[in-house]
Amino acid sequence: MWATVGGVEPAVKEIGTLAELAYTSLRDRIVTLAIAPGSPIHEERLSKEIGVGRTPMREAIKRLESEDLVVIYPRRGTFAAEINITDHGLIAEVRRNLEGQAARSAAGRATAEQRAELTGLVEQIGMLSADESMMRLDTTIHRAIYRSAGNRYLESTLNHYYNLTLRIWYLFLPRLPAMAEHLAEHIPLLHAIVDGEAERAAELAIEHVRHFEQAVFAALRS
Q: What pTM, to 2 d.p., does this model score?
């Protein structure tokens, strides 16, 4: 347990909270390509923009480095990782298996509150028209399924690979057709999870990842 003498525990919690803020803010800038692949990470400027100090920002950068979103070069600085399109098939191969397991686990383990959240997300599908808005909803849906799986190790791993996938998606977004159709694929998936249909949920999740993989390869050929 953390010592509480002299307010140490609140201080540690505060640093942890700010590090999480720095992490999510910087992660979102990187995965949406607001910080372009290969661009330098200006720690001081970003710390001011996000409203955190040097220590939380350093913690966030170390975490992002471990997730392959940031690279640190001695004496050169910190940069957003480049996107290697040749890795797309390898990432999709991993995600097909893990997304299926997450959907299967969520169908069996999701709490009543989580099932209500997933049902609410179904109702949002079809209400958006802009591609970027639909991308944000897609992200919200995937992360909600990961949480509902009730396995923090699976959730962490999937978030890692999903973040890498998001960068590829944003890179090809102008060339990817039928974003609304892709988003609509979540409707039967979410219903299957909410209804506890584990194997159907797993099958639908795997097929969803496969469709994305095919769409990117089609964009590469065009």
A: 0.83
85-221: CATH, from 2.40.50.1070, 1.20.120.530, 1.10.645.10, 3.40.50.620: 1.20.120.530
Closest C-alpha among 124, 133, 218, 134 to residue 180: 134
How far is Cα of residue 39 from the mean position of the Cα atoms in its chain? 20
By C-alpha distance, which of 219, 185, 220, 179 is closest to 201?
185
Instruction: Count CB-CB contacts under 10 A for residue 160.
Output: 17
Residues 18, 138: Cα–Cα separation, whole Å: 26
**Closest among 165, 148, 146, 142 to 157, alpha carbons compared:** 146
Residue 29 pLDDT greater than 90, yes or no: yes
Q: What ranges do the domains of the chain cover?
A: 5-80, 85-221
pLDDT value of residue 6 = 41
